[in-house]
């Protein structure tokens, strides 16, 4: 009976090791990986060695980086790739019109995952990166997706608890529920210094014809550099357009 539990422990530790890598920490030594993963150095060294042997990590001198095998597995994740390809022309139009950074996000568990980003004229204040995650309650895109998700999804977010990342972050269930109600009426979500300092944005859910949320489209930039509410209608129209396209059969999309 101990084997399944042991296997889960190994998977969790390997996940922690791989999760230590980010856009700003793409090459690290074992000690740094251990610190970021919260694991003993000896354990990390064994896991890194195993991941290198199987191609999930590659050695670069005394450091290691993400290996080719992970990129190969990423290619198998077809839906985000197809969705990103479908959305890119609309995202480009929105970026050109607003001069701000445009994000395409999906909901995974209680977090928003960024699957596409087109950077605007000044994106230095933004924390987002492709593949990056943020709590759904702390982003406009996350709130847009939660508003059209099942009640059980919202309850999981509430049960997990809130962290006040910035002064504008929602930190209580009642405030979250009230904001989600407003988003359901307008199909627009706004953020103001919630996940990152000095960052504001407008977001709208991409809904299938049966009102199922598949992703969210958002525009973000520096507070004071633009007015999210003035571009809200443009974000909503772009998301609605993508929602209509998502309901088309694959042959029609190719045409």
Structure, briefly:
The chain has 255 residues and is an alpha+beta fold. The protein folds into two domains: 2-73, Orthogonal Bundle (Arc Repressor Mutant, subunit A); 77-254, Beta-Lactamase, CATH 3.30.450.
Can you offer a commentary on this structure?
The protein contains 10 helices and 9 strands. With 255 residues, it is an alpha+beta fold. The chain has 2 domains: 2-73, Arc Repressor Mutant, subunit A, CATH 1.10.10; 77-254, GAF domain (Beta-Lactamase, 2-Layer Sandwich), CATH 3.30.450. The longest helix is centred in the middle third of the chain and has 21 residues, at 78-98.
- CATH fourth-tier homologous superfamily of the largest domain: GAF domain
How many helical elements?
Answer: 10
| Average of pLDDT | 84
As a percent range, the share of strand residues is 15-25%
Indicate the radius of gyration in whole angstroms: 20 Å
Largest sheet: 6 strands, antiparallel
Low-confidence stretches: 248-255
The count of DSSP E runs of length 2 or more, i.e. the number of strands, is: 9
Q: In CATH's first tier, which class of the largest domain applies? A: Alpha Beta
Span of the ends, CA to CA: 54 Å
Layout of helices and strands, plus pairs?
Layout: H1 2-19, E1 27-28, H2 30-37, H3 41-53, E2 57-60, E3 63-66, H4 68-75, H5 78-98, E4 101-108, E5 111-118, E6 133-135, H6 140-147, H7 151-160, H8 173-186, E7 189-192, E8 199-207, E9 213-222, H9 228-246, H10 250-254
Antiparallel strand pairs: 1-3, 2-3, 4-5, 4-9, 5-6, 7-8, 8-9
Helix pairs in contact: 1-2, 2-3, 5-9, 6-8
């Amino acid at each position: 009976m101990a084997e399944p539990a042991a296997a889960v422990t190994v998977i969790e530790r390997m996940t922690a090791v791989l999760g230590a890598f980010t856009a700003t920490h793409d090459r690290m030594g074992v000690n740094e990986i251990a610190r970021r993963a919260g694991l003993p150095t000896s354990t990390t060294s064994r896991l890194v060695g195993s991941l290198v042997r199987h191609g999930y990590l590659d050695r670069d001198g005394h450091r290691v980086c993400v290996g080719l095998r992970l990129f190969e597995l990423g290619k198998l994740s077809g839906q985000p790739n197809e969705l990103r390809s479908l959305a890119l022309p609309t995202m480009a139009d929105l970026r050109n019109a607003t001069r701000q950074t445009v994000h395409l996000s999906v909901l995974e568990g209680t977090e928003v995952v960024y699957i596409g980003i087109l950077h605007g004229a000044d994106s230095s204040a933004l924390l987002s990166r492709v593949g990056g995650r943020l709590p759904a309650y702390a982003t406009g895109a996350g709130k847009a997706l939660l508003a059209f998700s099942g009640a059980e999804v919202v309850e999981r977010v509430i049960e997990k608890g809130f962290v006040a990342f910035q002064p504008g972050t929602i930190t209580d269930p009642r405030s979250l529920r009230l904001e989600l109600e407003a988003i359901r009426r307008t199909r627009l979500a706004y953020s103001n210094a919630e996940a990152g300092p000095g960052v504001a944005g407008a977001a709208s859910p991409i809904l299938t014809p049966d009102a199922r949320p598949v992703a969210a489209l958002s525009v973000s930039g520096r507070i004071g550099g633009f007015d999210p509410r003035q571009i809200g209608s443009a974000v909503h129209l772009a998301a609605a357009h993508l929602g209509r396209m998502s309901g088309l059969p694959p042959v029609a999309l190719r045409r």
